[in-house]
Write a structure and sequence with these properties.
Blueprint: H1 5-40, H2 49-61
C-alpha cells in the first residue's frame, strides 16, 4: 500500500481537503435553498391580517 509515513500523511491531507470541498459545496447549496424558501414566504402580494379582517366584516354586513 503506502511505503512511508510521508505518503500516508499526504494521502490523509488530500482526503481531508476533498471532504472540506464537499462540505462547503453542500453548505452552499443548502444555504441557497434556505434563501429561496425564505424568499418564497415573503409577504409580497399578501394582505395583512387586520386588512383581511375588515374585508370579512364588510362582506358579512352586506
Amino acid at each position: 500500500m503506502y511505503a512511508s509515513e510521508l505518503e500516508i500523511r499526504i494521502r490523509y491531507e488530500e482526503l481531508r481537503r476533498e471532504a472540506d470541498r464537499r462540505r462547503l459545496v453542500r453548505e452552499a447549496t443548502e444555504g441557497a435553498r434556505r434563501a429561496a424558501d425564505l424568499a418564497s414566504d415573503a409577504p409580497e402580494g399578501r394582505v395583512s391580517p387586520s386588512r383581511a379582517r375588515r374585508w370579512r366584516v364588510r362582506r358579512a354586513a352586506a
